[in-house]
Design a protein that fits this description.
Cytochrome Bc1 Complex, Chain D, domain 2, mainly alpha, elongated, 2 strands, binds heme C, 128 residues, two-stranded antiparallel ribbon, single chain, 5 helices
Length: 128
Amino acid sequence: MRRAGLIVIFATLLVGCGGGETVSPTGEVEGTLPKAAAGNPAQGKALFTSQGCGGCHALKAAGTKGAIGPNLDQSLKGKDEAYIRESIVDPNAKLASGFQPGIMPNYGEQLDSKQVADLVVFLSKQQS
Ligand code: HEC
């Protein structure tokens, strides 16, 4: 009988495939990739002051007048979030023109990723 023959072949294939282990397809996966925490600009402003950024940077929105580092109202014009993030977590990677490396502390070691996101959003909002 044709049908019986097919069943035998099918059964043999199943056994051949790793002892009948069931692997079910998971279907489309949506929204499970961990997203970087969204930054909160109000928190960013508070961090800018509490972390001492204002001691070195002038920034109108934070009311700070530090002059050791660049004036962020001016120097960040046209810079995107990726640049701002890198400037905070790896300050020596690209230097603001006219400034020396090694002055700005590496905040990548001191702040968690949420705090960095807060600062980045806060700073990028000042540039528009
Ligand atoms: C001890 C002084 C000092 C402190 C504190 C400091 N910075 Fe800086 N920062 C600098 C100097 C100097 C530069 C320029 C050299 C460079 O690009 O790393 C700079 C550069 C930057 C830049 C890039 C500016 C540009 O136009 O390229 C950003 C953004 C920045 N700092 C943000 C911060 C934030 C946010 C904090 C607080 C979490 C902070 N800084 C704390 C001294 C400081």
